[in-house]
Amino acid sequence: MMSNRLSLFMSKRLLRFFLFVSVAFLLLFFLYFPDSETNSKTILSAPDYLSNDPDHLASFLKSPRLKEIHEENLEHLAQVEKLKQLKYQQELEQQHQMMEHEKYLQEQRKIHKDPIKEEEQNQEILRDLVNLQFSSNKDKKKNTNRQDSKNVNINSEKDDNKEDMDAMRELTPFTSIGKYNTDPKFNDTMEYIRQYSGKPGAKPRATFLTLLRNEDADDMVRTIMNFQRKFNDKFEYPWIFLNDEEFDTSVKEVLQKTAPSIKMIFGTIPKEHWSYPHWIDQDKAAQGRQKLTEMDVIYGDSESYRHMCRYQSGFFWRHELLDDYDWYWRVEPETNLHCEVSYDVFQWMQDNDKMYGFTLSIHEFEATVSSLWTSVKKFFRANPSYKNEYNLKKFISNDGGVTYNLCHFWSNFEVANLHLWRSPAYRHFFDFLDREGGFFYERWGDAPIHSIAASMFLPKEKIHHFKDIGYHHPPYNSCPIEDKIYKSNKCDCDQDKDFTFHDYACGQEFYAAQGIEKPINWRRNVGKW
């Protein structure tokens, strides 16, 4: 009897011990995953299944519910492991993305330190690729077609040009310019300009713009005084001065004192915009300077003049000081206005949807641009969509585009929309010409390049001749020859010295190309000097 009771007592003790160990194991197991929502629910529900009653515990341990809990825990462990693996993969991906982003930022920092370095590298790759295709095309033609027929040779050359320039059009990269769209498919120059320009009636975002050397400050003082008196005292547009060197403090002070009420901004031209690009052959450039010097061409031996022409052609509108402006009026030292300008020139241009305005036009020295038109034709053969249907080509060519007649707007006075130069068409045009090397191998000027671009990219009615503004840039004068305009604008120039329709000028070509009547007395100065 005693042994039976002892056995029963020991069995109960063992059962309680086993239950205690099991409960402790379960509690420790669930506490091992304190962040799990499922575990929390399981731990909270445990007292419903377990109690101090031995019979209840024994019944529970034999029930299917314990097996279900065990299976749930195994399933939960699998889910937790899966989540760990997923989190690990996400961390790896984030690290990879951060590394890629840092690499991108480093590349961007390099680009911003040298704004045109990437463009030059891309253009170098372009040139190599196009040269390879040039050679490939010519080799194919030589191997497959050795006929002596002149017509066949001509057609072969045309095919070569088409294939070569198609390749160039496909490969030429476009670079961004701040906030402005430079999508190469955005070929409609007028649409591009209107997208970014001010609307008619709105106050124009405009400025005067001058490239100025420190040593020319005295001449600039006289010019500022003249322009203020004749025009800007009434409208108070700001003035931006750019220099390839740092401006002397004394220069800034004397210019500001000349017109205290006018905002004057001084900037330095980046070195990479006023230096030789890496693709220029220095020996060939020196030979070009020597040739023009021997021909006694003005600025024939000047390197700085060539840098200036290249800068005015392709870089001034990229300067950050011009980013907030739509319009500029270019003014040079030692120039002056002959007449009162009583209306807001910028407002008139904006309200009348004009894009480029000038006073004087002239013929270029042929020796300075001997290969320019050949390069221009190559460009437009590759990019015919850039040509405006209603262009002013007749101003720059007397034979339908076969040759260049050397006419151009004298760009030392130009009132123009900056978005014309910012447009994809012009950027593409300049980049192509820049790689041709004519700025340094010859002496391509910014005036012919601006004039050709404006004449080809714009409808002709967007280009305006300011016949009412008297202007002087040594040695030529623009002076209204119509007496009514001369008197009403209080001009102080000699009408007999107006250069507009002189034989060496291009006024006759401009009026003919525009299809507008010349003044009644336009012949008064033809052939005078």
UniProtKB/TrEMBL annotation:
InterPro entries: Glyco_trans_15, Nucleotide-diphossugar_trans. Keywords: Glycosyltransferase, Signal-anchor, Transferase, Transmembrane. Residues 136-164 are annotated as: Disordered. It is a single-pass type II membrane protein. Its main location: membrane. The keyword Transferase applies. Pfam families: Glyco_transf_15. GO terms for cellular component: Golgi apparatus; membrane. PANTHER family: ALPHA-1,2 MANNOSYLTRANSFERASE KTR1, GLYCOLIPID 2-ALPHA-MANNOSYLTRANSFERASE-RELATED. This is Glycosyltransferase family 15 protein. It comes from Henningerozyma blattae (strain ATCC 34711 / CBS 6284 / DSM 70876 / NBRC 10599 / NRRL Y-10934 / UCD 77-7). The gene is TBLA0A00470.
